[in-house]
Amino acid sequence: MKHIRNFCVIAHIDHGKSTLSDRLLETTKSVSDRDLKEQTLDSMDLERERGITIKSHAIQMKYQHTDGVEYTFNLIDTPGHVDFSYEVSRSIAACEGALLLVDATQGIQAQTISNLYLAIEHDLEIIPVLNKVDMDTAIIEEVSDQVIDLIGCPKEDIILASGKTGLGVENILAAIVDRIPAPSGDPEAPLQALVFDSIFNPFRGVIAYVRVMNGRLKKGEEIRFVNTGNVYAADEIGVMQLENIPTKTLEAGNVGYVITGIKVSKEIKVGDTITHEERRCDKAIQGFEDVKPMVFAGIFPLDNDDFEDLRDSLEKLQLNDASLIFEPETSAALGFGFRCGFLGMLHLEIIQERLSREFNQDVITTVPNVSYIAYTKKGDKLNVRNPADLPDPTVMDYVEEPYINAQIITKPEYIGAIMNLCMEKRGILIKQIYLTTTRVELQFDLPLAEIVFDFYDRLKSISRGYASFDYQMDDYRKSDLVKLDIKLNGENVDALSALVHREKAEAFGRKICKRLKELLPRQQFAIAIQAAIGAKIIARETISALRKDVTAKCYGGDISRKRKLLEKQKAGKKKMRQFGKVEVPQRAFLDVLKLD
Ligand code: GDP
Ligand code: MG
């Protein structure tokens, strides 16, 4: 145990976590050059393309220190997006130390700070690293000062590094041994292992990633998951190098994997504690919570015949993404589909993209909303996850909506614009703190619904990229909510219905109508687009009629070209949905929300 070091890397997206992690693997010869594809740790294709780490992974390295001893390092990777913050906190709980990686050209961002606080709460030893110091635009002095202000370390503790050139990598490896404490824990005590992540493997089923806190797990033993109460046999255990290496035991202090033959990832909960069925530990490792989806939307197949295929695909996705939830729903406009719950908008987009890429399923996503709580006059309490579920005004007493605590870090010159944005989003300013003379932290209470759609993008553009954002869930507060309907030629398109604050309803309705006018192709008849609250029309746009004959420009003659054009038009139609006579392109359902 003396020669083990467990650590993670805390960094804002793009500050170079993946690049530096690869450099650590390379320097410790944990991967052969042949295997060192760029960004080894991001194993899902989608992650690589988007440059984000969705699921956390862990990898073991062996490091020969100058003291002549070989150390075992377990690097636990963490996702870097607010949608996935629960997974960050579990990864942190599995470590004794953290590299705090800060881009020397950018400085500290809100995401970094909240993850850093999590790490400090868990008593992790923090090794500050300024990355990308090879760049001309690096402002090393200023960023060093920020780091010193934040964690109160002496300046000499900060390691200057570049994942690109390899500068500082040896120093980082040595600091991991010298500064991060070896794990403590009693190998003779009852088994207590933290599940900090799990993945689904199509051949092996669910693989749980664990950090053994106390005790010793042997292959084949009967184990109990404390929070779910499930009992299984540990069919295979081992450590994670580039491949999983089976071992006979896993002891206190170490990080490894457990395969139990579980076939559905829902049955393993990240944050759960594993113990022996025979000799149980007295308590679970604290901090376990069920991850709650925050954003809900309907997902419908383009073609109603694909409903069962869609169910099948969602079930497969759920096997390795336990945070995805879904239940069947019907829409008058779209037929049979599913109401799905997501951690956030990024999660929604990822699921939609995976459906299309991995399962060849093109879907229509309805206007997303958060989950509200409605109280009826009779005193019933209802969860409202779908605009259709909002009780009629005659039976409803009041509604509550979820609020978040948000932290925004920016330069002083952008305070005004950010205040305006947050006020427009019904935010309440809680605090304004100068971190240094050139960086200020603003704290707001904001309705979750207001940040779900276009908040990030607008924040980025008004601050020219110099603002970072992070949030935690707070509580539910009373809200004046209405259901806004969209009609095409008088027909309600329930997939476009939205729950909005009354003050925002008119502006929102106008924008949606305008946007639909741009997004809907002109057809042979005029189309009236209307927004309504109940029977009251609050906005209207009209698309004028068009005679469309795609073959007209072919000047008669060329039959094969004519046929091609017709085929193309037919293929285009496949991505359309019909409402009465009106055709709506699939893309319109998502694009309609990109309002600004
Ligand atoms: P992550 O999002 O934190 O995992 O960041 P990545 O490792 O994907 O890096 C983000 C971008 O910064 C990529 O384009 C990298 O090539 C670049 N990058 C990472 N580290 C360095 C560095 O030390 N110097 C320079 N110049 N570029 C870097
Ligand atoms: Mg990365």
What would your notes on this structure say?
The protein has 596 residues and is an alpha+beta fold. It folds into five domains: 4-179, Rossmann fold (3-Layer(aba) Sandwich); 192-276, Translation factors (Elongation Factor Tu (Ef-tu), domain 3, Beta Barrel); 295-366, Elongation Factor G (Translational Gtpase), domain 3 (Alpha-Beta Plaits), CATH 3.30.70.870; 373-479, Alpha-Beta Plaits (2-Layer Sandwich); 484-593, 2-Layer Sandwich (Alpha-Beta Plaits). The protein has 14 helices and 34 strands. Strands 11-10-16-7-8-15-12-13 form an eight-stranded antiparallel sheet. β4 (97-103), α4 (110-121) and β5 (125-131) form a beta-alpha-beta unit. α7 (307-320) crosses α8 (345-359). It binds guanosine-5'-diphosphate and magnesium ion. Residues 11, 13-19, 51, 131-132, 134-135, 162-164 line the site of guanosine-5'-diphosphate.
List the helices and strands and how they pair.
Elements: E1 4-11, H1 17-27, H2 45-50, E2 58-64, E3 70-76, H3 85-93, E4 97-103, H4 110-121, E5 125-131, H5 140-151, E6 159-160, H6 169-179, E7 192-201, E8 205-214, E9 216-218, E10 222-225, E11 231-233, E12 236-240, E13 244-247, E14 249-251, E15 255-259, E16 273-276, E17 295-301, H7 307-320, E18 325-331, E19 335-342, H8 345-359, E20 363-365, E21 369-370, E22 372-376, E23 381-384, E24 396-410, H9 415-424, E25 428-436, E26 439-447, H10 448-452, H11 455-462, E27 467-479, E28 481-488, E29 491-492, E30 498-501, H12 502-519, E31 527-533, E32 536-543, H13 559-574, E33 576-579, E34 582-585, H14 586-591
Parallel strand pairs: 1-3, 1-4, 4-5, 5-6
Antiparallel strand pairs: 2-3, 7-8, 7-16, 8-15, 9-14, 10-11, 10-16, 12-13, 12-15, 17-19, 17-20, 17-21, 18-19, 22-23, 22-24, 24-26, 24-27, 25-26, 28-29, 28-30, 28-31, 31-32, 33-34
Helix pairs in contact: 7-8
This protein binds guanosine-5'-diphosphate (GDP) and magnesium ion (MG).
